[in-house]
Write a structure and sequence with these properties.
With 211 residues, the protein is of the alpha/beta class. It has an 8-stranded mixed beta sheet with strand order 3-4-5-2-6-9-1-10. Strands 7-8 form a two-stranded antiparallel ribbon. The longest helix is centred in the N-terminal third of the chain and has 12 residues.
């Protein structure tokens, strides 16, 4: 009997804490040492969580042309390799609402020749490959406070837009201290024997922590 395939909930992974944007980029650079052409990387996290910051570290370490930035209005941007490494395809799927739109990008035609990095790709691009890294970037809750929070929302829980009565009140002193919790999950046979522990170098980590 074959082993059950890994799901995002059961996939091996590692949790790394970073303290500022430079540390998040450095994590991206360490991640690059594990990547090769054909790899699919999915980045998830709220607005402003630091997904693009992590992508910048990956792009710099891959030595690709152009600065990696949020491609929201372009959807997909190709960064050609300046060395012998793979190209980087950086996709922002935030505004994509259907699988047909994903198909129209024709990502599978270049998947084998590049590292494909997709922000906001949950439930949209998993079909591209059974092998992928799913990376969740989390920022501390509480940066945006509601003027009139709902009574049934526990203290310390970040409110989703439109989930509270009244306009959100932003305390600029608490907006962002740079701390991030980054969870990396490895899914598929490509990653079965890959050691993720190098991602924890010089950072707070929890290898094998419950995900």
């Amino acid at each position: 009997m074959s082993a059950a395939p890994h799901t995002p909930e059961t996939a091996p992974g590692i949790t790394v804490a970073t303290g500022n944007a430079d540390e998040t980029r450095a994590l991206g650079a360490r991640l690059t040492r594990l990547l090769r052409a054909g790899d699919l990387v999915m980045l998830s996290g709220g607005l402003g969580a630091g997904k693009t910051t992590l992508a910048q570290g990956i792009g710099a370490a891959l030595e690709v042309r152009g600065r990696v930035s949020s491609p929201t209005f372009i959807i997909a941007r190709v960064h050609p390799a300046l060395s012998d490494g793979p190209d980087l395809i950086h996709v922002d799927a935030y505004r994509i609402t259907s699988l047909e739109e994903i198909d129209a990008l024709d990502l599978d035609s270049s998947l084998d020749r590049a590292v494909t990095l997709v922000e906001w790709g949950e439930e949209k691009v998993e079909a591209l490959s059974p092998n992928r890294l799913e990376i969740q970037v989390l920022r501390p809750h509480g940066a945006i406070r509601a003027e009139h929070p709902q009574d049934d929302v526990p203290a310390g829980v970040e409110h989703a837009a439109g989930s509270v009565t009244g306009e959100p009140v932003v305390d600029l002193g608490e907006v962002d201290d740079g701390n991030r919790t980054i969870i990396v999950r490895a899914i598929g046979p490509r990653w079965a024997d890959v050691d993720l522990s190098p991602l924890a170098a010089d950072a707070s980590s929890q290898p094998g922590a419950p995900l």
